[in-house]
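Action item from last meeting closed. Structure (377 res):
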C-alpha cells in the first residue's frame, strides 16, 4: 500500500495478513470521510473493577459517515498472567471499524494478582471528522491503514505548518539508519510507532529533531530519534519533514489447548486418519495476524456419503470465538472422499501460528489443521 510518508524507506512495513483476496471492496474516497474510534469502558469482573485506561485501544478506521454506532459488549476471563481468554462478543464480519476490538482486548496485559472469570467490558463508538480528529489518531491510521488510504484532508492535518518537505523534487535518502527492531522492548500484540519531525540543512543532515507523536514506547522513541539523527538525505535545506518508525507486533501465544478426546461425542463413527479429497483452504484472520496473536479452535462436524462436511460447529476456541468462526469456514469448504454411509462425530483442531518458531513476526502467518477423529474411507 502506498504511503505519503517522506521517510517510508526508514521503517519496517511488513504487514502480516490472511490469504490474498480476503479484503472487502472499498467505496471510493469522499469528502465526508471520518475516523471511526472505539473506546473501552471499565472492566468488571464480579466485584472487581479494572480501569479503562489499562485496556489497549483498537486501531482506528476510516468511515464514510460521521455517525456513532451502537456499543459493543464483550465477555472474557483473565488468566493468572494477566491476559484475556475465552473472549466472546459480536462477530465483526466485514466491518473494518470493529475488526480490531477483540484482538486489541486479547493483546491487553492487565496488572492483576490473580486470575478472574466472568469479566465484561463495553466499547463505545466516538467518530471524529478528519478536521477534528486528534493528529495522533490520524498518524495511527497511516501506520495501520485498515481500509484504504488516508485522504489528503487528513494528511494536511499531519504535515507541520510551513513545511516544504513535500515539494518537488523531494529529498532522497543517501544513508538510512534503522533501529534494531528485534531488540526493542514492547508488549506482545502491540504495534508500536514513533514519528520524528526534523529539518534538513544544506548538506542533508537532519536537525531540530523532535518526537511529535508515538505509542509511548520509550525505547523505540529514543531509537527513532537516534536513527533519524544519523541518517542523511539530499536536497537540503528543508523544513517540516516527518519520518515514521514502527515495530511490528511480537508473537502472543494462545491460551492452553484442550484434550480433543474429551470433546469426541459418544457414538462417533469417525476414524482418526484420512487424506482430504478437497484440502481445507487455510486462512489466518487478518485482524489477528496484524497483532501477531495466535489461536486455536476445535471443530466438530459430520460427513455425508458424498464427502461434504455438515453440522459444522465450534467445540472450543481460544483466545476468542472469532478463531472458531474462522475455523468453521475452513472445515465447511473442505471435502472428504465419498463413502458408503457417511460419518458422525468428527473432531478437528485448527491452529493459527504466526511462523515457525519466530519470536519477531518477520515470517508469514499460517493456519494448520491437525487431524483427529476424521473418517477414513
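Sequence:
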Amino acid at each position: 500500500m502506498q504511503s505519503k510518508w517522506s521517510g517510508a524507506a526508514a521503517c519496517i512495513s511488513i504487514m502480516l495478513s490472511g490469504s490474498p483476496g480476503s479484503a472487502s471492496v472499498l467505496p471510493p474516497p469522499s469528502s465526508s470521510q471520518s475516523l471511526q474510534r472505539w473506546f473501552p469502558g471499565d472492566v468488571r469482573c464480579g466485584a472487581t473493577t479494572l480501569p479503562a485506561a489499562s485496556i489497549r485501544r483498537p486501531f482506528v478506521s476510516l468511515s464514510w459517515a460521521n455517525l456513532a454506532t451502537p456499543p459493543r459488549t464483550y465477555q472474557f476471563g483473565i488468566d493468572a498472567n494477566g491476559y484475556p481468554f475465552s473472549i466472546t462478543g459480536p462477530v465483526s464480519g466485514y466491518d473494518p471499524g470493529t475488526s480490531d476490538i477483540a484482538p486489541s482486548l486479547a493483546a491487553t496485559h492487565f496488572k492483576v494478582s490473580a486470575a478472574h472469570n466472568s469479566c465484561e467490558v463495553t466499547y463505545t463508538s466516538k467518530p471524529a471528522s478528519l478536521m477534528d480528529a486528534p493528529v495522533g489518531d490520524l498518524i495511527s491510521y497511516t501506520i495501520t491503514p485498515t481500509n484504504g488510504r488516508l485522504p489528503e484532508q487528513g494528511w494536511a492535518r499531519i504535515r507541520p505548518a510551513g513545511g516544504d518537505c513535500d515539494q518537488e523534487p523531494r529529498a532522497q535518502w543517501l544513508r538510512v539508519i534503522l533501529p534494531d527492531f528485534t531488540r526493542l522492548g514492547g508488549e506482545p500484540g502491540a504495534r508500536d510507532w514513533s514519528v520524528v519531525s526534523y529539518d534538513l540543512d544544506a548538506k542533508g543532515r537532519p536537525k531540530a529533531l523532535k518526537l511529535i507523536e508515538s505509542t509511548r514506547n520509550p525505547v523505540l522513541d529514543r531509537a527513532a530519534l537516534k536513527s533519524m539523527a544519523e541518517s542523511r538525505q539530499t536536497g537540503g535545506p528543508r523544513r517540516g519533514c516527518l519520518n515514521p518508525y514502527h515495530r511490528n507486533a511480537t508473537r502472543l501465544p494462545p491460551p492452553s489447548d484442550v484434550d480433543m478426546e474429551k470433546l469426541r461425542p459418544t457414538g462417533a463413527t469417525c476414524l482418526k486418519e484420512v487424506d482430504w479429497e478437497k484440502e481445507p483452504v487455510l486462512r489466518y484472520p487478518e485482524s489477528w495476524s496484524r497483532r501477531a496473536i495466535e489461536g486455536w479452535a476445535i471443530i466438530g462436524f459430520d460427513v455425508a456419503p458424498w464427502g461434504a462436511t455438515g453440522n459444522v460447529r465450534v467445540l472450543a476456541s481460544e483466545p476468542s470465538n472469532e478463531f472458531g468462526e474462522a475455523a468453521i469456514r475452513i472445515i465447511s469448504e473442505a471435502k472428504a472422499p465419498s463413502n458408503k454411509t457417511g460419518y458422525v462425530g468428527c473432531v478437528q483442531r485448527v491452529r493459527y501460528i504466526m511462523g515457525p518458531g519466530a519470536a519477531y513476526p518477520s515470517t508469514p502467518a499460517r493456519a494448520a489443521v491437525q487431524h483427529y477423529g476424521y473418517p477414513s474411507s
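Note appended to the action item: Confidence is low (pLDDT under 50) at residues 6-30, 357-367, 369-377.
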